[in-house]
Each structure stands twice: as structure tokens, then as C-alpha cells.
Specification:
406 residues; N-terminal domain of MutM-like DNA repair proteins; Helicase, Ruva Protein, domain 3; 11 strands; H2TH_FPG
Length: 406
């Protein structure tokens, strides 16, 4: 996200590109942008810009003419994640140019507010947000005084890494700046903010040094608040900031080399209570977050019910009729030490009534297959047993089939 240095570089870029250039016509907004229309139109006007922390003010000033009642208009921009300004020929308009200001030149050019992710916003006739403190870069003395006078604020109960993102006191500091500020000041990111800042306040009261001596000490050993001012100015002097200067393509590489901590390999990282990642080295401090447990409700898995019955073996659909008959035989309990076999259920059911022609043909086929298939040896029956078995079969065939009364 663009921070104080990037907003300052954007204002400097606008002033350099628009110096002495007259703009004309209506301010044009893209159709897909959800921001407000800018109700400004003039035959000739000038554009200038100034930044303050994470905000940029664009001023549209109509040229002074006799009888003209046109008034200047201020547009306050907050860049979001990817906002920036570009001056381009109208024939080479960027795809994501969501606000366009046209020049009187021939061929005309356009100053475009470009925002790929469309998180940025602008406010018509806007002013600096009241809840934002002085700029850490351009209003250093007011910024320092604002912090040290308000140490009782609940914002300083939090870790110093979270307090540095509070724009009420640190207007212009963002994620990469806070990591670099704390790392170069050798302060653990999760130390309590008030503890750190109260030490600065006591140090100023105890030392009876003159102003010139204090300035010298600050230069040699800058404290946390001084570093909040110096590091953004260093980033500006790199020429490209965090790669948001459209005229400096090499700025991003220079910026990466300038970083000591932020997203640097070998550094540690944690997420603060706001979900923002802080990069650091060494001990995180006493207020470091513990491992976050999942908020999802854990349900105990139901115990698997074990059946006392053994699983039935799967039948093979490709078995022959003879194999099916052999598998269908079930063993009876041993009687007198001899295991007797029970005949197949189909044969017993068939004995209850006369068979049809199709049943007789299938039965004959099964009998022929049984004859061709070797079967295990059976115990021979005596003639008396054979006679009793034949009589039982004859009586079963002659017995009429019972019909249940409905």
C-alpha cells in the first residue's frame, strides 16, 4: 500500500508535470469506478498537488478572467493499494485510468489517476481527515508533540508495532516503514508502546542539555520518533519509493536494496491482532501473539459400531451352476460325531409342488452338470434308508399345495 513517501513522490510528480500546463474541459470519470463524479468544468485551469501523510490533495484552479465566477476545487485522494498518477498522451490512455484531466495541448495529453485494484477513493471539495495526525515527514515537530502529549490514549496500550499503524498519531507510516523503523531502532515489535514512548519523554525531562546539544544527540542516536521522520525521507531520496513513481522504473530495485528487514530473507514474521504481518529479528517481545486456535467447533468422531456377525462372502456371478450348488450346501451340526449335509434349498422347495416344463428343463440341466462335476465322497446309505427317502419324496410330490386363506 502506498505510504507517506509514495504520496509525497506523487505530489512532486504532479507539480513537475503540470507546471505551466493549462487544462480544459470537463473532468472525466470512468464508467466502472464507484467513486463520485467530479462536477468541474472550465475552459482553462491549472492543477497543483500537496501531500500530508497518506493523503494527497489535488487543487483545480480556474484561470482568472474578467467576469468569471469559477471557484477552485479540492480533491482529496487516498490511494488504497495501487493508486498513482500518470501524465500520458490521450492516444495511450491506461486501461485503469479512473479519473482524467485533459490538457489544451495538441495533441492533447491527460493527467490520469490510475488504480488497478480500485481500492482508492477521492473526495470532492474534500479536506484532510480530522482524525489523522500531523505528517511524520512534513510536520515533524507537531507529530512528535502530538504523540508525547497523548501517551494516556488507549492506542498506546497495544504493542508498538500496532501503534505505529495508527494514523491518528503516525500519519504516513505503513507496513514496510514500521518494520524498518523498529528494526533500525532495535526495538522488539511486541513491546508495549507506552513503555517505549514514556522512556523518550523522561529522557527529554532529565537531560538539561541545550537545544543544539539535543539536535546533535538526535543525529548521532535518533530515537524512535526521530526515526519515524528520517526513514521516510530516506525512502523519498531513493527517487522511486516503493516503486510507485511512474517515471522511475529502476526505483523498485533500489528500494529493495535499501530494505534491511521488511520481507528480507532470514527475518522472522508474525501477524498482529489486525492480521497485518510484521517482520523483525530476534525476540518479538512480551505482547507477541500466541498460537491462534481454530475458531471452528470441534466435534468428537462417532465410534465405529462393530457388528458381531461376520461379513457375508461376496458371491461370484461367474460361478457355474455346479459350483453354486456346492457353495449352497450348508453343514449341519455334528450328530454322533458324523457331519451330515443338507440338500440345496431349491431342491426342497421344488418338492412342494409339480414342476413346470421350464423348471424341469433347468433342473435336468443342473443334474447333468452335477454328474459331469466330481463331488466329494458321501457316506453310503443303507437300502432301508434309501427306501425311506424315496417314500418321503413321493409323499411330498403328491401332497397338494396349501393356499393361505385371505
Amino acid at each position: 500500500m502506498p505510504e507517506g513517501p509514495e504520496l509525497f513522490l506523487a505530489s512532486r510528480y504532479i507539480n513537475a508535470e503540470c507546471a505551466g500546463i493549462t487544462f480544459t474541459g470537463k473532468v472525466e470519470k470512468s464508467e466502472i469506478s464507484k467513486n463520485l463524479e467530479v462536477p468541474f468544468e472550465s475552459d482553462g485551469y491549472l492543477i497543483s498537488a500537496v501531500s500530508r501523510g497518506k493523503e494527497l490533495k489535488l487543487t483545480l484552479s480556474p484561470l482568472k478572467r474578467e467576469g468569471s465566477k469559477e471557484c477552485p476545487m479540492d480533491l482529496v485522494f487516498r490511494f488504497g493499494m495501487t493508486g498513482n498518477f500518470k501524465m500520458v498522451p490521450v492516444s495511450d490512455m491506461p486501461k485503469h485510468a479512473h479519473l482524467r484531466f485533459y490538457t489544451q495541448e495538441k495533441p492533447p495529453r491527460a493527467l490520469c489517476y490510475v488504480d488497478i485494484r480500485r481500492f482508492g477513493k477521492w473526495e470532492v471539495d474534500g479536506t484532510w481527515q480530522a482524525d489523522r495526525g500531523p505528517c511524520v515527514m512534513l510536520e515533524y515537530e507537531q507529530f512528535r508533540d502530538n504523540v508525547l502529549r497523548n501517551l494516556s490514549d488507549k492506542a498506546f496500550n497495544k504493542p508498538i508495532c500496532e501503534a505505529l499503524l495508527n494514523q491518528k498519531f503516525f500519519n504516513g507510516v505503513g507496513n514496510y516503514l514500521r518494520a524498518e523503523i523498529l528494526h533500525r531502532s532495535k526495538i522488539a515489535p511486541f513491546e508495549k508502546a507506552r513503555t517505549i514512548l514514556e522512556d523518550l519523554q523522561r529522557g527529554l525531562q532529565v537531560s538539561g542539555a541545550t537545544l543544539s546539544k539535543k539536535v546533535k544527540l538526535k543525529r548521532e542516536n535518533p530515537d524512535l520518533l526521530e526515526t519515524c521522520h528520517l526513514l521516510p525521507m530516506e525512502a523519498v531520496n531513493l527517487g522511486g519509493g516503493k516503486g510507485y513513481d511512474p517515471t522511475n522504473r529502476e526505483g523498485a530495485a533500489v528500494f529493495v536494496e535499501w530494505l534491511h528487514c521488511y520481507s528480507v530473507p532470514g527475518m522472522k514474521s508474525l501477524r498482529d491482532s489486525n492480521g497485518r504481518t510484521i517482520w523483525f529479528q530476534g525476540d518479538p517481545g512480551p505482547l507477541a501473539p500466541k498460537e491462534r486456535k481454530s475458531q471452528k467447533k470441534k466435534t468428537k468422531p462417532k465410534p465405529a459400531v462393530q457388528s458381531s456377525k461376520a461379513p457375508k462372502p461376496r458371491r461370484n456371478s461367474t460361478s457355474s451352476p455346479a459350483q453354486k450348488e456346492a457353495k449352497g450346501r450348508k453343514k449341519r451340526r455334528p450328530e454322533n460325531g458324523v457331519t451330515q449335509e443338507k440338500e440345496e434349498d431349491g431342491m426342497v422347495k421344488g418338492a412342494r409342488g409339480p414342476k413346470t416344463r421350464s423348471q424341469r428343463s433347468s433342473s435336468d440341466l443342473q443334474e447333468s452338470l452335477l454328474l459331469s462335476t466330481p463331488t466329494p465322497a458321501r457316506k453310503r446309505r443303507t437300502p432301508a434308508q434309501k427306501t425311506q427317502s424315496e417314500k418321503a419324496k413321493a409323499s411330498a410330490i403328491s401332497r397338494p399345495k396349501r393356499v393361505k386363506a385371505s
